[in-house]
Amino acid sequence: MAKLTKLDDIVSLCKRRGFIFQSSEIYGGLASCYDYGPLGVELKNNVKRAWWRASINMRDDVVGLDCSILMHPMVWKASGHADKFADLIAECKKCNTRTRVDHLADKAGKHTEHVPLDTAQKDAQSLVNKVCPSCGTIGQFTDPMPFRLMFETKMGANVDDSMTLFLRPETAQGIFANFKNVVDSTRVKIPFGIGQIGKSFRNEVTTKAFIFRTREFEQAEIEFFCEPGTDEEWYNHWKEFRFNWYVNLGIKKENLRFREHDPDELAHYAKGCVDIEYKFPFGSGDWQELEGIANRTNFDLRQHQRGMRTMNDWYENKGDLGKITLKAEAEDYEKGPLSYFDEQQKKRFIPYVIEPSAGIDRSTLAFLVDAYDEEEVKGETRNLLRFSPALAPTKAAIFPLVKKDGMPEIAHNICDDLRKYFTCFYDEKGAIGRRYRRQDEAGTPFCVTVDGQTLEDKTVTVRDRDSMEQYRVSTDQIKNHLREKLDI
Predict the structure, then answer these.
(1) Predicted confidence (pLDDT) per residue in 454-487, tens digit
(2) Where residue 172 sits, what CATH number does that domain have?
(3) What sign results for the dihedral spanned by CA atoms 306, 311, 313, 317?
(4) Contact, 153 vs 165, CB < 8 A?
(5) Are 95 and 61 part of one and the same domain?
(6) How many structural domains are present in the chain?
């Protein structure tokens, strides 16, 4: 119960301090959709910047991309999403709640194993021991049925020339579709990766736990292309690299773990897959997926080669995906348009792909949960967020002790100078202790106070968020001091 209370406390703090709001709240809200407030958008942007810097800017073997959310429907035919991207759901006959079959548990808490749609049991008898998570009724479910996960939309000026499009359910396919463009227009050579951050959309039937699972979310994905035979080496490399990224940004190591997928869990194209799991304060067993790292073999590029060969059928069937069957590849598929020629080895092949795929919203929640702390100070509870300085929405808060004697003017000048280098917040309202507490809850690493001594010796008080230690720094050194502390 304490852990659930902790999540409730975090949700409350997020609303109170302007991190995250319910979307369309004035109209009663929209389920599983959230808006990031002034502090939340800074936090989320800092998570994205940290990912981009570590995964792309600091490496010479990964380049960036920003693909369109709307793509040609054949992209999703080739990837398999148009035909198979669905969850099996069952409806409770008593309360009419719909739940994913693989999320149903029996009285002992054991879940249904996740299996592909085409091999899954599709009769209610297979759920005879399962418990409805809403009303607790056992075994009273309809036959499982597929629930389509992609959102559809229309492109075109009128009905006659409109085309059905999909909001992308993942960012990966845009990278595969641009593989040849990147190879032809840059100096990249295998092994290399392409990374991007962007919005994805899934019509989830089961959403839960604040921003953990939502219908609109942001992904940070890398497709790392390598020569077949070297894929295991790169698979292990990216496992370690991505795990350490979370640790280096302050997440406690004991709250992270790897979970290798069992053979019957793997997607049909995957050679291997591992989840980085975080011990979230909710759910069954607490450990929940934070990021997945998969060895996708050469499946995706081969599929898109097949899709390219099938475009005549697209036109002949006027875009009706249901009437299109991907044409088989020729025997020399390794020489197709999405193959790669290694000039040094004088050979051509379809690259294997290692895919680290992280959820930005899910990562943001993990950083919030891990940073959250409560402690007693002089008989009162102090709530604070112990963010890594790299992620803190506001790096420093600047206060005049009182609104007189020229202190506000000095504080404003300091704040204006520091804003050239990092995010700052100016506040002159309320008792100084309350101002400190507000910044503790916002996760601000340092507070700078202009006081009476500043008028005498041109020093200011600097307060550290975590230790609450206070010390004096000269006004002409405050910029360099904070930049060194913040590692900026």
Answers:
(1) 999 999 999 999 999 999 999 999 999 999 999 8
(2) 3.30.930.10
(3) positive
(4) yes
(5) no
(6) 3
